[in-house]
Amino acid sequence: MALHRAERRLAAIMVADVVGYSRLMGRDDAGTLARLKACRRELLEPLVSEHRGRIINFPGDNALCEFASIVDAVECAVTIQRGVAEREQAVPRPDRIYFRIGVNLADILAEKRSVYGDGVNVAARLEQLCEPGGVAISGTAYDHLRGRLDRELEYVGERRLKNIDHPVRVYRVVLTRSLATLPPSMPGQPAIAVMPFVNRSSEPDQDYLSDGIADDLVTELTKVSGLFVASRHSAFALKGLALDVRELGPRLGVRYLLQGSLRRSADRIRVTAQLVDTDTGGYLWAERFDRVLTDVFAVLDEITRSIVEVLKVKLLPGENDALGKAPTGDIAAYQLYLRGQQLFRQRSRHAYEVARRLFQQAAGLDPDFARALAGIAECEASLHLHHGGVLPIDETLATADRAIRIEPGLAVAHVARGLALTAKGDLDRAELAFQRAIALEPEHYEANYAYARACFQRGHKEQAARLFRRAAALRPSDIFAPLILIGIDQGLGQTERALASARQALCRAERELERQPESARAAYVAAAALAALGDRDGALRYAARALALEPNDHPVQYNVACTYSCLGEVELALDVLERTMPNAPPYRWAWLAQDADFDPLREHPRFAALLAHAPGTGIATGP
Question: Most buried residue, 50, 515, 561, 562, by most Cβ within 10 Å?
């Protein structure tokens, strides 16, 4: 009789285990068993099948599953955890069923009714490492998932697993925002996120208006001290994803979502808005507004006040008046401002320059439009700090100060003031400006990021690291905070954290390059991250790509030189520095003189000669 031979193949293995199964059975064996069987029948089996997998074994309190695709395996694991949480919501917390899930990609031996090998054992050990309701994945799974999964993957570290010879890199799938990334809030304070409004106009370019309305609702709601408002960037990172509202709430760290849409036809607009409770998925309030475009501020005010009323938030003295104040009386100025905002977020030299012109046109139509004035100052400071542009410091500072006099509670105006003061070299007052911006709007990405840079420039590296991590959490697409964290973590002797920062930077940079293949900045971030991770060939490839995309851009050249230096490519690094530094602003020379990335060049005669031509010192700003 012929012997059956096991097949060897690459597969994604998922292991799910019930947390505290014996305890649950001891409390209520009949109820637990009935709910677990129903969970298997109504949730696990359909979901595994839907994601093109198969259940190999499910003896009672754990499941072993195989998938052909690692993406399918992880998506299935996440969907299972969400589904289990929904099913158990009405059950008293001590009696709830929670799963831990581990996922690994490996070569296995497969038979019809079983699978074998270290790859299966790794998945089982990973499951034991994750929190109840969580999903842990291996380094091999992560390497194949990069850029293919619309979820944040957080590096946990290398772990020695029982009966596994080699250490395994471990990652967790971020299903909810970590409490560490949330600012302190009052007990019982309602937490809300404003989702991107859907543009239902016939013209796609009206996105600037639908996004702008959502943006301004964030600004208005932030004026209410009794509300916690999630970061605009965290919410907008989920734009276009078809996610259940009951998943969105935990991912954003909020209970309530404001959703809506905009339809524009000539000078008429239709705005719809709904307030959703993410615990139940039910609507708490909904309204449709058919108005002329010039009534847009009245619509924003009505939506804000309706939310305050529905959530039973008490307005403090002065907040009522602040809510009713329109930012400008000129609708044309408002539209120019929104278009400028849309461009500003691209963070390229050209985008800053065009955004500045749009803000200037808006301020020309309404000289008291504080947000446009703040936009002008922020563009000018950003062009100087990021691209070495000539900055009329006193004029820029005066513009920011005028914006603050008009609208003292406008966080972005204080950020613009802080950036101008940073460019001036007045870091004491710059820090005060950033602190004020964060006090006004704790979830403001630019305020946290700019304050982190100021702290770093002053040598306060621990505080800078905390602020950079917070900035990276507030804007899930940000590539620069993780990049800077690589060097800070290395300098602080935190090797595992530095590797985690490098992996986060690489993941985000590759995702950015998928969206914008021409992004030289994403390419040099990927190069630096790969250099830190020990992938020399990959780092050199991305460095060459960055220079090919922007051969004359100073920040690109400088950061590519950093990568070359870290890789030991001394002559290449010096070639790039000799091309770019003669035209660099003073602050970049100050940065070059103390940048640890260039330590391998310090004793080289060409580097010494380069430093000998340095102009007067300025303020170091980083990437």
Answer: 561
Is the separation of the CB atoms in 264 and 209 below 8 Å? yes
Does residue 158 come out as left (phi exceeding 0), alpha (psi in the -120 to 50 range) or beta? beta
Q: In angstroms, rounded to a whole number, what is the distance separating the alpha carbons of residues 55 and 44?
A: 9
Helices (H), 318-426: 319-323, 331-344, 349-365, 370-387, 393-406, 411-424
Determine the number of helices (DSSP H) and then strands (DSSP E) in the chain: 26, 14
Range with the poorest average pLDDT among 49-58, 151-160, 364-373, 566-575: 151-160
Contacts of 451 (CB under 8 A, 6+ apart): 418, 431, 434, 435, 437, 438, 467
How much of the chain, in percent, has pLDDT values that exceed 70?
93
Q: Which helix (H) or strand (E) holds 159?
A: strand 153-159
How far apart, in whole angstroms, are the C-alpha atoms of residue 56 and residue 66?
A: 7
The residues facing 13 across adjacent strands are 66, 104
Distances (CA, A) of 108 to 6, 118, 124, 381, 508: 10, 8, 14, 56, 31
Residue 490 CA from chain centroid, whole number: 22
Residues 6+ apart with CB under 8 A from 177: 234, 250, 251, 252, 253, 473
Q: In the predicted model, what is the mean pLDDT of the chain?
A: 85
For residue 285, give the amino acid letter. Answer: W
- Of 159-163, 288-292, 384-388, 462-466, least confident by mean pLDDT is 384-388
**Higher per-residue confidence, 102 vs 345:** 102
**In which band, very low, low, confident or very high, does the pLDDT at 181 lie, cut at 50, 70 and 90?**
very low
**Two tokens at 207?**
């996105």
CB 71, CB 137: distance < 8 Å: no
Q: Is the pLDDT of residue 4 over 60?
A: no
Helix (H) or strand (E) holding 172: strand 168-173
- Express each pLDDT in 479-509 by its tens digit: 999 999 998 888 888 888 888 889 889 988 9
Whole-Å CA distances, 23 to 26, 61, 94? 5, 12, 10
* Lowest mean pLDDT, pick from 110-119, 291-300, 438-447: 110-119
At 62, the amino acid letter reads N
What is d(CA 271, CA 210) in angstroms, rounded to the nearest whole number?
Answer: 9
DSSP one-letter code for 43: I
**Helix H or strand E encompassing 431:** helix 427-440
Inter-residue contact 167 to 158 (CB < 8 Å): yes
Question: Which span out of 70-74, 117-121, 419-423, 494-498 was modeled with the highest average pLDDT?
Answer: 70-74
Cβ count within 10 A of residue 584: 20
Tokens for 209? Answer: 């208006």
Query: Would you call 285 helix, strand, or coil by DSSP?
Result: strand
CA distance 273 to 587: 47
Block residue for tokens 């490098």: 502
3-class SS of residue 255: coil
Lowest-pLDDT range of 129-143, 161-175, 497-511: 161-175
DSSP letters spanning 67-135: ES-HHHHHHHHHHHHHHHHHHTTTS-GGG---EEEEEEEEEEEE-SS-EESHHHHHHHHHHHHSPTT-E
Q: Which residues pair with 53 in a beta bridge?
A: 67
